[in-house]
């Protein structure tokens, strides 16, 4: 029974990531905070946004988001503030500008290079499979002589 309770607690843990003491009184601000939190990555968790993470830093980031919203910042200003402070890694969907363009296009570019390389290799290989020239009568005689020995 204890194991079942532990398993259920672990499964439901992300649902309880936002603690009751973090929730804002204004439902509109809280909805904005939840929307922003869903777009921000926890800097210590892999692939988890700060809204779902139970990490201490995620809690601090959630509180910071709410603090900035209460101070009157727009959603874009809050996100810009956190990107300035933690870098673009904090975004769940990184931007497609600057140095990130190289990262966005590196995968398709390398796939294209690999496809061209494979095509050239296969074409060269198919030419190598063509039958070799026939042996001359002297070469056939010499070969049969060597095979007898």
TrEMBL record:
InterPro entries this protein is in?
C-type_cytochrome_biogenesis (IPR051263), CcmH/CycL/Ccl2/NrfF_N (IPR005616), CcmH/CycL/NrfF/Ccl2_sf (IPR038297)
Q: Does the keyword Lipid metabolism apply?
A: no
What's a GO biological-process term for it?
A: cytochrome complex assembly
Q: Pfam families recorded for this chain? A: CcmH
Which keywords has UniProt assigned to this entry? Cytochrome c-type biogenesis, Heme, Iron, Membrane, Metal-binding, Signal, Transmembrane, Transmembrane helix
* GO annotations of cellular component type: plasma membrane
Has UniProt tagged this entry with the keyword Transmembrane helix? yes
The transmembrane segments are 102-122
Positions of the CcmH/CycL/Ccl2/NrfF N-terminal domain: 6-147
**What Gene3D superfamilies does the annotation carry?**
Cytochrome C biogenesis protein (1.10.8.640)
Q: Which GO molecular function terms does the record list?
A: metal ion binding
Stated family: Belongs to the CcmH/CycL/Ccl2/NrfF family.
Please describe what this protein does.
Answer: Possible subunit of a heme lyase.
What is the protein named?
Cytochrome c-type biogenesis protein
Species this protein is from: Maritimibacter fusiformis
């Amino acid at each position: 029974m204890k194991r079942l309770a532990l398993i259920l607690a672990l499964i439901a843990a992300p649902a309880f990531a936002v603690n009751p003491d973090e929730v804002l009184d204004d439902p509109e601000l809280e909805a904005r905070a939840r929307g922003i939190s869903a777009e921000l990555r926890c800097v210590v968790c892999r692939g988890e946004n700060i809204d779902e993470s139970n990490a201490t830093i995620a809690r601090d980031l959630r509180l910071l988001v709410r603090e900035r919203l209460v101070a009157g910042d727009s959603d874009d200003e809050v996100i810009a503030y956190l990107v300035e402070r933690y870098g673009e890694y904090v975004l769940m969907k990184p931007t497609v500008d600057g140095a990130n363009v190289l990262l966005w296009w590196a995968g398709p570019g390398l796939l294209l290079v690999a496809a061209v390389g494979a095509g050239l290799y296969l074409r060269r290989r198919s030419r190598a499979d063509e039958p070799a020239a026939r042996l001359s009568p002297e070469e056939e005689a010499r070969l049969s002589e060597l095979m007898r020995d």
